[in-house]
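Appendix B. Chain record.
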Amino acid sequence: MEHLQETQVDTAVAYEGHFLKVQKDTIRLPDGKTTKREYIKHPGAVVVLPVFDDGSILLERQFRYPLRQVFIEYPAGKIDPGEESLACAKRELLEETGYTATEWQFVCTIHNAIAYSDEHLDIFLARGLTAGDAKLDEGEFLETFKATLPEMLQWIREGKVSDVKTVIGTFWLDKILKGEWTL
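Structure tokens predicted for this chain:
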């Protein structure tokens, strides 16, 4: 696939905020010409698919400012510097929902915005859930609720669930819970 490779010639930080950094690179195209690429640098994140013993799913409702609406999502969060993905998943599940899990399985890694970001999300399945007290970050507001897999699939079909990590996580969960895919 070398004939498709783009090579970095120069790099610069176009913007650096508290959470995100925007890079502006000069690159050499496969035909030898140069052009610019701007992209968001992201530390990576995790997504947790929390499943109760009865097969129901733990979800969140959270307002997302860029789109000015409340979204239905799985618990998720940014990986801290030096933090392992599984440790982050356990921390985020506890912080956002108050739940802990006794069984953890890695599902997959997804790249949700390949045209303009290097962000990756590691998805984990969590079972053996036990309720506790949430420890939300300062300025974080959300509510948790339970739903069934058929409800989630219907909400995706209807466009009520459009968050990409939640859509992909639900499709994986459908295959896993039906026994069609094993981890």
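Further analysis of this model is presented in Appendix C.
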